[in-house]
Amino acid sequence: MIDILLPSFVLVLIIILMHTYLGIEIIKRQIIFTDIAVGQMAALGTAISLVFFNEKYHFLFSILFAVLTAIIIAYVSKKNKYVEAFIGIFYAFGFSSLFIVLSKSPSGMEHIKELTASDILYVDFKDVFITFFIYLIFLSILYFSKNYKYYEFIYFPVFALTIVHSVSLVGVLVVFTFLIVPAFIGFLVKKEKAFIIGIASGFILSVFAIYLAVKFDFPVGYTITSVLSFFAILLAIIK
């Protein structure tokens, strides 16, 4: 069974590493729901390509919607103190629009389930290698541009592109979980080592969740979200 699950485990580690780095920045900025809004808009772009263009250009539409959303959020966050409310409105718009668009597809509900929480068990090592190189490039861009005056306008498009790729692999809900929960756990345990603690805890809990899902035939994406969220809630109560 380990051989079958190995690509999923490695991919989870890579995604958690990238998303914990981004999640720490998001929590520091107090714009927690940015990723779920961007992810939802990316999913909307995919849905539009599916319904109106027979799924042609779905990555192009997804990237366009996600990057535009991220740039708008970056712009509004500089001038509006109610940015969290604005992001919530953006999410509501994307979520409702997704249902409207997919209502025109005979298999709309199935697509909604896939876009919300995909089954990571179906990935292979090709997905692992592609994700590794994409995220290595993204991390390098963020690291070397950190002191740049217009870093925000680099960070958010890179953030959006990361979300687009991750959503295509694991779905919007799991992306939100990987972005927020490990970073949140890291901050709760020890702020100075939030990155390392977040990666370790996120990976261990995800492996445990995948094991539970396989053993008891639970939906994998929702099990990952449930296990990580439950642990974060428990830790927050104890701390």
Q: What does this protein look like?
A:
By secondary structure, this protein is an all-alpha fold. It has a single domain (2-238), classed as ABC transporter involved in vitamin B12 uptake, BtuC (Orthogonal Bundle), CATH 1.10.3470.10. Helices cover 82% and strands 0% of the residues. The protein has ten helices and no strands. It has helices spanning 2-29, 34-52, 58-79, 83-102, 108-116, 125-144, 152-170, 172-189, 194-216, 220-238. The longest helix has 28 residues, at 2-29. The chain is globular and about 40 Å long. The model has no long low-confidence stretch (mean pLDDT 87).
Question: What is shown here, in short?
Answer:
With 239 residues, this protein is mostly helical. The chain is built from ten helices and no strands. The chain has helices at 2-29, 34-52, 58-79, 83-102, 108-116, 125-144, 152-170, 172-189, 194-216, 220-238.
Helix and strand pattern: HHHHHHHHHH
Largest sheet: none
In CATH's first tier, which class applies? Mainly Alpha
The number of helices is 10
CATH topology: ABC transporter involved in vitamin B12 uptake, BtuC
The end-to-end span amounts to: 36 Å
Q: Tally the structural domains.
A: 1
Instruction: Report helical residue fraction.
Output: over 70%
Count of distinct strands: 0
Q: Structural class of the helices, strands and pairings?
A: mainly alpha
Radius of gyration: 17 Å
Calculate the mean pLDDT score and round it. 87
Poorly predicted regions are: none
Give the second-level CATH assignment, the architecture.
Orthogonal Bundle
